[in-house]
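Changelog note: in this version the structure field was regenerated for every chain. One regenerated record is shown below for reference.
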Amino acid sequence: MDNSTHYFYWDWDGPHPHDLEPVLVIDNENNNPAKLVFSRFHWKYGTMWVNAVIVNSRPNITFLTDRHVPIAQSKSYVIDIMQIIETKMAKRETFFHSLAFRAILMNPSSYFKGETHNYVHLIVKASILEKFEFSYDRLNCILIIGSKIEDLSEEIVEKLEGLKSFRSTYSTNAWKALPTKNKQPNATTKE
């Protein structure tokens, strides 16, 4: 996907060996200290954290014990879904997996008690086999954490629109849910 994606490796993940979890951090422009954090949940569900808490110039991220799901500390844990693959089965899978992800985030502060986490020793320095690569064209949806789709800033919308170049099986309907550039960010009126 991108050489700035860091892969974190565990030799054993619950019931199966060899777990690679990707985390991609994208800086916002305009001297905005906020960063966007992209990752995945169960391989087919992208996660995009739009209000990640920054500690020592980096998003504060932890991984769930046993399953190693990347969780970013966030100013908000509102979740919205941008469906990518529009088949009935993909929508059904997205629904059930989004419920599981929401359950994980029911008490997010418990993941960030005490000192900040340091996972630098788990970063893979070698190339990744293609079957493990984090690729947008393998995702059913993107779970947006920290904002509703209609409240995203124009800058974040532009970054999401930039993901279209990574698509091969995406439905164009997913992109219709994004606010247009004419719409004011954080507008309270609905169309």
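Spot check on this record: The helical segments are 88-104, 154-162, 173-176. Residues 88-104 form the longest helix (17 residues).
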